[in-house]
Amino acid sequence: MLIEKVLKDNAKNIDVKEWALTSAEMQPESSLPAWKVGKRVLHGGRQEGVEVIEVDSGAMKFTVVPTRGMSIWRGEVGELSLGWDSPVREIVHPHFIDLSRRNGLGWLDGFGGWIVRCGLVSVGPPCTDGDEALTLHGRIDYLSAEYVEVRYETSPVARLVVSGTVEEKHSADAALRLATEISIEIGTAAITVDDTVTNVGDRAQEMQLLYHMNFGPPLLGGGAEMIAPIRRIAPRDARAAEAASDEWTVYRAPQGAEYTEQVYLMELQSDANGDTAAMLRAPDRASAALLRFNVRELPYFMLWKNEAPANPGYVTGLEPATSYPYTRPVERKGGRVPMLGSGESRRMRVQIEVLTSAESVQMEEAKLRKIATAAAIVVPEPFG
Asked: Is residue 40 one of the residues assigned to a domain?
């Protein structure tokens, strides 16, 4: 069985505002867990007009935001919340965002999601690259999808799929298209984001993509730890280097108001196919978020630690990417900015699975340690 529903198609002037599909309608006698998916529009304040698609697999719930680049705002598995308590409570509509504000830091005015893409033209801090002024983390999170579709499939497995396309185009330069499929099998707590970025222009085009995957309590807390098969690790800057290296992947409880963020740059070991993973293990060691990706697609990995008080936000980010979050000129000089020829594509996939038992956490941690064939190389000074 295959059910397809187009919810938005700008080329055909289609925009369905309210829609829902449930397992009770489709397969009332099924032995599968009850599931549902639906679209609605938010109202009030800075969220006015934001379109969201809410997915419930029967084990995990999450919210896709077509208005915000097909990002994922929040998730939950039972009583376990996924995401973080950002000072930005609303899903802010792009109409209210000026990315150039505060010397290029306007991106932060709507930052509050669980899984947020940075790119497609650039990631990293504001800078000037030639005659181009680049703002923090690019534009993709504030571009609305041009096409959105929801599918329910029963073969080869029962799953829900939210697909969409987002285009970042400038009349004189960038012409990049993101095509994404966000999927989850019915009854599971593992979400897969399958992205393809294509150069739809006639000239070669640089591209960058970073997945800002953000977690707060209860997965984050004093004694939580990021576990991964690290090949090389270094602090991003002198601030990050202040901590002892054996503390870089371990978390403290929220610190004082004077705290400032710390970021660590990594390359991870992988299996023969390039597959690797990283885990955020909760303080109780009985729950975790497990992130899987491939180092041939996403060769770099960042750990963002923001052990600040609740306001401005106690949060960490696990961030696979095509480059490090330095300025684009620095990354270009380091050979870390991919170039796509006309019509060329690059595919990137990430999966987040939520583990909810001590046994499953221990089992997946053992797999991670098995991938690590050698001790991590610690580079004590920031590198670019």
From this structure: yes
One-letter amino acid at 334 equals G
- Helix (H) / strand (E) element for 14: namely strand 14-15
Distances from the Cα of 338 to the Cαs of 127, 129, 178, 371, in angstroms?
A: 19, 16, 15, 27
DSSP state, residue 215? E
Q: Which amino acid is at 7?
A: L
- This model's pTM is above 0.85: yes
> Tokens 């050698």 correspond to what residue?
374
Reading the block at residue 61, the tokens are 């719930």
CATH number of the domain to which 325 belongs: 2.70.98.10
CA distance 159 to 60: 12
Residues 6 or more apart whose CB falls under 8 angstroms from that of 324 comprise 124, 236, 265, 300, 302, 331, 334, 336, 384
Question: How confident is the model over 18-45, as a mean pLDDT?
Answer: 92
Distance CA 124, CA 137 (A): 5
Structural domain containing residue 114? 2-378
Kind of pairing between the strands at 377-378 and 230-235: parallel
| Cα 217-99-65 angle, rounded to 5 deg | 50
Which letter does DSSP use for residue 33 in this model? P
Q: What is the C-alpha to C-alpha distance for residues 303 and 265, in angstroms, rounded to an integer?
A: 7
Domain count, the chain: 1
Q: Judge whether 384 lies within some domain.
A: no
Q: Does residue 383 lie in a domain region?
A: no
What are the backbone angles phi and psi of residue 56, rounded to the nearest 5°? -135, 110
Q: Is residue 8 part of a domain?
A: yes
Q: Is the peptide bond prior to 156 cis by the omega test (within 30 degrees of 0)?
A: yes
pLDDT per position as a tens digit, 104-131:
999 999 999 999 999 999 999 999 999 9
Q: What mean pLDDT is predicted for residues 89-99?
A: 97
